Structure formats: structure tokens, C-alpha cells
Amino acid sequence: MTSNSAPPTPEAARSAGAASGMPKVTMIGGGQLARMTHQAAITLGQCLRVLAASDSDPAAQVSADIVLGSHDELDDLRRAAAGAAALTFDHEGVPLQHLRALEAEGVAVLPPSKALHFAQDKLAMRVRLAELGLPVPEFADLAGDRTAARARLAEFGAANDWEIVIKAVRGGYDGRGVWLVDGADEALAVFDEYPSDAPALLAEQKVPMRRELSAMIARSPFGQGAAWPVVETIQRHGQCAVVLAPAPDLSDDVAKQAQQMALRLAGELGVVGVMAMELFETVDGELVVNELAMRPHNSGHWTMDGAVTSQFEQHLRAVLDYPLGNTAPTAPLTVMANILGAPSAPEMSMDERLHHLMARMPEAKVHLYGKGERRDRKIGHVNIVGRPGESMESVRERAERAAQWMSRATWTDGWDVHS
Amino acid sequence: MTSNSAPPTPEAARSAGAASGMPKVTMIGGGQLARMTHQAAITLGQCLRVLAASDSDPAAQVSADIVLGSHDELDDLRRAAAGAAALTFDHEGVPLQHLRALEAEGVAVLPPSKALHFAQDKLAMRVRLAELGLPVPEFADLAGDRTAARARLAEFGAANDWEIVIKAVRGGYDGRGVWLVDGADEALAVFDEYPSDAPALLAEQKVPMRRELSAMIARSPFGQGAAWPVVETIQRHGQCAVVLAPAPDLSDDVAKQAQQMALRLAGELGVVGVMAMELFETVDGELVVNELAMRPHNSGHWTMDGAVTSQFEQHLRAVLDYPLGNTAPTAPLTVMANILGAPSAPEMSMDERLHHLMARMPEAKVHLYGKGERRDRKIGHVNIVGRPGESMESVRERAERAAQWMSRATWTDGWDVHS
């Protein structure tokens, strides 16, 4: 693997850890990813420090080391970083100039700003991937002069029979900042109505796809890489709903190709920590890169119960330049299903719903985030580890049934859930 | 299973939970058991509240809900219990009269004081077990008038060829409060030198034993019971060093007998939560009850990586009257080895030792407690989950090698470790 980078290492600040002599990691953002990273930190003899907006954030509810503040404020970031061996992220929203300032002050920002740039800026990512010869959909840059950009959109759309998607270059997640447009009029309307002071747009070819995959890997500053099995992700309403691990009926060659692409890219960009490379598998069986996330990712939640090393422990190992843990699955099949806020919160409390689920499915591994219920908000997930000889369809049915119950207090008989 | 008890249930205080609507559990004591219970609480959408003596206690380092105080002070216990759905324990040291006072005030003390009594008082436990027809070693009560008690010791010792052990009725753990005496002179000397204001003593027949076992079970207020596989525990210097799960070469009948004894006793005593019944397997293959612990226990640490449901999650489920989780092992063999403080702390930091272990053994599951290093102090543990077809001897060798390294920064080639 090529490594063209020497990111700052955590050695310098290492001794400034807790009384136990273990290093301190700071995570920016107090969401569920930080919450679950804290669980992993406890095992490693640490306590995760979290920069959270509120003490009711999922991670702030459970960690003993909370810095309240904003990820947009350099001073808050500085306070959170003080004495930490590494500074890392629960989300991609931290302004890059702040991270560069912290790096200049000697903070071990991991992944480093120069890598994180490509997770924050979808256009830069596509340009860089294309330079590296990695497969990305055709795309058009819609930044700059509005009139010229509109003309580029019209040209790109026509060239692709208007089978295109419009995306904000920055700030989108879980389906936000993505417009699935149906034809020229709708595409141009999205462009025309888009505020000129918002992040730039790009247009992208809609890939004729069979399904979505995710290749989750980790990379340490030392340059060690580790890949979990490639998974299939099932999206609903533009966000991840279900993850099948490993991706069913995926050839070893294609799986290996996806892992190699992710490991190579992480090396080229100087990524440190875990990284999810979201991929389309086209109807022709080709792989195309869709998105990158340089942090623990929804497509890796199955590793908490289905792999020797979870993505959260691995992320800590990587940012601390520990050797990486074994990524082998502990069972042939694991399915993760997100628990989403229902259109209207069920009358039955979450506590009671959990009680009933435990009675009906003693083997379900439920992970709750301590979040209030809002429509389609990710408030938890369920992992089901397959029984010996069980089919993926059966494991998935159990996982979806459990998640559906936790979301809505209704049992379904199958997994083909539409809302 | 017989249940002659109706312990207070957590329903009343249940709605007084966190913003997320999940219940709050308070654990008395801030040690590693509370630390690991907090990890399990996070998964269930909760944050464990901990009554800790110091904010550097293992659990206080990592939980967002710490009450500083003493388990000997009723007011501190009250503060910790306020608004909690259940009050439970990291150790057996809380004065029973305080727990009775809390129960009278409506606190759901789980296990209830009437059950916990038998885990606190070894004499009461032996008397009760004998009444229930459960096998205990012969014993003699050495409380009361010193002269009469000394005569009882002399008589009991002679009747057992001085193959006896002297134990403090209360307060012993990890080999403290236990005297392995060699002959009449030593036994009588222990008795004569023992302070008259300390907890009473008892003498007990030294059982000709093949090995020690532990039957770990859980019981809910509803009366549901669940048993993990019976394990073998290997003691060194009077404390647990290694746990083999399941106990090798244990017949199904004897294993089932141990589980049934533990489940029956939990029902008879009204235990709520997890309970470890420590047993001797005699040279004749009989089982004799040695000790009881009504809390997560060292002999159950293997469940964190080797069973579908860990003892920590199960304890929370039980005290909240949730249905209990699946206790099935996730692998044929798991071995736990304690990481103990070395006679003199190694020059290499714990952080560096962990680094090296991860490099050498990527599959080791290390759990660190955030404790300072002191000779023979339990500061962490390692779980090794066996590979398919691997022998128990081989899994054990890996676990002992890992734990030895973490303790002393020296590698051993075998597991026959003496210090």
C-alpha cells in the first residue's frame, strides 16, 4: 500500500492521559457514533472525551468527560483537544480551516484535514478518485457562475438522458442534500430554486445499479490496514435501513476488489481511522464509488456483535496507532436493522417496547442511543447474528421484525417494509 | 422454580428515567464491575448511576452520572437511589440495616436485603443451604464467648484431622478473611490472635477437591431464571486467576445439577440479578457449595466475549424485570485470565504493553479497568475465544500468555505460572 503522507502521531500527547496512564481521545460530536466509541474506549482503559452541543446528546449522556461547545468554534475545539493524544470525529461537519489551525498547533487531528477534505467535499472526492483511476460515476461541477453552471447542467443532463442525481457538494447526510430528479424540468427547477449562498452543487450520472455495497476498512498512522467483509446496504428514503453482512452472492473477486480499492484510497489520501467506502454494484457487476465516510459508519454497526473487533474499537486503535484488531466475522451471517423514529411516536414507551422485544427475541442485540423519537431519525439499531445454517433471508426477517417493532410497536410478518 | 418472595419491582420509579424515557439503575460501588455494567447500560439506552468513593474509581472515570459518597452512609445511599428504578451492587459491603431502611422508603433494592444477607454472612449462608438440603462443607460457628468458641474449634479441628479452613463470616474477598491453616497450633493461633471486635469466624472442613467450579445464573423479579454454562475457576493466592468456559470434562449431569442448585437457591432466597455459586468438585465427583456472590462476578467475565448475553447486560435486565437474554456461548471454548498488578510495576507503561499485545495477538479481547497497578490487584482481564477445533489447553495458554504479558511485560511459554 502506498502512503504518501505522514500524519501527526499521537505519541507526543500520549503521556498526558488519565491517572491510569492510558491515552485520551477526543471525539468531535456527541451523537450515537461517539456514544458507541465511548463504550469501546472503556474496554481499552480509557474514557472518551466528547465535544458535544448539549449534555443531552447521546454521548454526553454517558461519558464522564464532556466539553460543551460548538464544532464551528475554534476555541471550543481547542478546549476539547487539550491534552488529548488524538482528535477525531463523529461527523464530517468541522470546518477544515479550524482543523488546519489545530494541526499547526500540534494537535493530532485524525483523520488529518488533508484526508478529511475528501469526505467533506464530494466534488473534490470525485476529482481525486478519478485521478487515481478509481471508478466514479460521470459528474459535472455546478459551482461558480450560475448561468454557466446551468448550461453545464443542461448539457450533462441531456448527455445522460436526464438519468442524473443532483447533490450538494458539502453537508449532506442520510438523504439530505441529494435530489433524485425526474427529467429536465425538475432538474433545472432544483438548480434554479437552490440558494446561491448554500454549498455548491454537482450533477452525477444515475448509475444503473443492482444494489449498494459498503467496504469498511481501517488504517493506522503506521500504515497498517484492515478490512471487514464487504456488506450490502439497503436504503430507504435515502438513508441506510438494513445491512447484510457479508453481502450475499458477492463473488470473492469483487469483494476483494472493493476492499483493495478502499485500502488503496485510504493509503493515497492518508486516512487514519476507519473509513466506509459506499459503492454501487451496477447491473453489469461493476463497482462504482458513491460516498466516503472517514469515521465509524452505519454500515459497520453489525461489527459490534458480528465481528471479533468492532468498528468503534478499531477506530480508537487506529487513531492511537495501536495495531489493528482482527476483523473476522464471528458468525457466517449478521444483519443490522436501524430503529427509526416512527411518523408518530407509539403510545407504548421505548422501555416497554424493549421489554416485549426481549421476551419475543432473546437473541436480539439491541443498541439504543438515548435519543428522542422523531420521524425517520436513527434512534437505535438491532443486530441479529445468524444461527448455524440459517439463510440470510431468515436472519434479515428477524432483524427487520425487531427493528420495526422497536420503531412502531407493530409486528410485521416480512421485511418488505414501506412507510 | 420455587419463589417464596415478592421483591420490590422497579415499576414505580420506572417513569422517572432519563430524557430518553429509559429507566435509571443505580449501582453502589465504583469498581470494575460497575464500570463494565455501565458499558452494558449504554447499549440499553441508559446511563448507569454510580455511588463511588472517588472520581478516580474505575466506574467514576467513565460514567456521566456519579454520586460521590460512602456506601456506609445512609444519606449517601439515599442520594444515589433518588429517582432510580433499581438500586443494585458492585460489592457486598453495604450495611444491611441501611438497605432495609431504603426498602422501607420504597427503593427497589435488588437483590433485596433479605437475599443479600446470605451473600454477606457466610455462616447464615451455610446454615440456610444446609436447611435447604444443598451440599455445604461441615462447619463450626466460632462466634460468641471466646472460650466456648475456642473449645468448639478444638473439637471441630480434631474431628476433621485438622483438615480445616478458618474464615471470617463477613467482609472477605479475593483470599482476604480466609486462613488456610496447617494443624492445630496454627489454627488456634489464628483464633487467639484474631481481634475480638472483628467479624466473627467460622471453621470449615477442607474439602478434598478436584477443582473449583462456578455456576452463574440470573433471576428476575418475575421469577425467570437463566444459567450460563458452568465454568472451571483456577485460583492463585486465594483469588480467581483463570476461568475455563465451559468447565472441561464436566459431565452434563453434574453441570445440570450445579445450574439447578443455583437456580433453586436463587428462587428460595428471592435473589434478583445475577448470582455466582462457587462450588468445589470433590475428588469423588460430588459438588459442594463454597461461596455465593449476588452481583456480576469474576467467573462471568468470559461472557463479555463468549456468550450471546454478558453477565453485565443480564444483571441490568434482571433488576429492571426485563426478560433475560440468551445465555448460549458464541464459541465452543472461551478462556478468561485476569491481569494482575505485578510485584513491581513494569517500566513499560500499560499503554505500551497493550500496544505490543495487540501486535502479537490481534484476536485477544483485553478489558482494562483504569486502575493503578498494585501487587495482585485485578486491573483488567483478557478473554480468548477458541478457534474452531482448538483445544482448551491451547486457548488457555494464549489467555495466560496475554494476561502475564499485560501484568509483567514478560512473555511466558506456558501457563503454569507461579509468582
TrEMBL record, chains A, B:
Protein name: N5-carboxyaminoimidazole ribonucleotide synthase
Catalytic activity: 5-amino-1-(5-phospho-beta-D-ribosyl)imidazole + hydrogencarbonate + ATP = 5-carboxyamino-1-(5-phospho-D-ribosyl)imidazole + ADP + phosphate + 2 H(+)
Molecular function via GO: 5-(carboxyamino)imidazole ribonucleotide synthase activity
Lineage of the species this protein comes from: Bacteria, Bacillati, Actinomycetota, Actinomycetes, Mycobacteriales
Keyword annotations from UniProtKB, A to Z: ATP-binding, Ligase, Nucleotide-binding, Purine biosynthesis
Subunit structure: Homodimer.
Keyword Chloroplast: no
InterPro entries noted in UniProt: ATP-grasp (IPR011761), ATP-grasp_carboxylate-amine (IPR003135), ATP_grasp_subdomain_1 (IPR013815), PreATP-grasp_dom_sf (IPR016185), PurK (IPR005875), PurK_C (IPR040686), PurT/PurK_preATP-grasp (IPR054350), Rudment_hybrid_motif (IPR011054)
NCBIfam families per UniProt: PRK06019.1-5, PRK06019.1-6, purK
All residue ranges annotated as the ATP-grasp domain in the record: 126-320
Top-level EC class as recorded in UniProt: ligase
Region (Disordered) residue spans: 1-21
